[in-house]
């Protein structure tokens, strides 16, 4: 019962046709359909909607989290209403979405809780369709930007039953970033502080099978002239392996080896280089930019 994982996200792109080509040809996503100026895409094996692309600007317009059933939606709707958060119930969402509850987080992000009708019991790499491109396993997590991460962290924990796995605190009592989980995986949503108003997304992450899969993905990006921003490498926070790149005005992460976390107090980091990578690899200045 409750929130189990991320469901999908809607990203804005400047050139919709160019972005569709990249996501299908290079990332290996499958187009599910188009309606009202939005293009719905699926990645992996479950056949559900993982990404929605809309024209105009960059960044995340909304993102959704999966819940088990309508009873969960009712329970969270009541809890949000008691906290003074307005909600909207929708039944005309994307393919595979039975019902969704939409609301706004303190950071200004539009969020949804969604009951899905599709999906296998678990992701099995051998059952992934043999399409071209990078062929990620699934939508893995999302990292958003907020001028002050704390209100969003408190909102996730107090109203949506999230736990905090790690915190980056550049000074005592200051949250520079937080990695939050609804499942047992290290993070489903991460929040990074930004001094820039109007920036909503740090990266949209796709789950990969292994470090070797990251190597093959890097070759695929290279064949299409897409430069890697940083990686492959291993994070200090969480310990997952990563590769980052930009596409259609937004940053993407390819992530593998995401660990599972026991219930406990969060780990607090005050050293950014160690938090980013124990291997000594550090990101370029561009990594501080968002969309």
Automatic annotation (TrEMBL):
All residue ranges annotated as the VOC domain in the record: 5-116, 138-259
Q: Which domain of life is it from?
A: Bacteria
Q: Which InterPro entries match?
A: Glyas_Bleomycin-R_OHBP_Dase (IPR029068), Glyas_Fos-R_dOase_dom (IPR004360), VOC_core (IPR037523)
Name this polypeptide is given: VOC domain-containing protein
- Source taxonomy: Bacteria, Bacillati, Actinomycetota, Actinomycetes, Pseudonocardiales
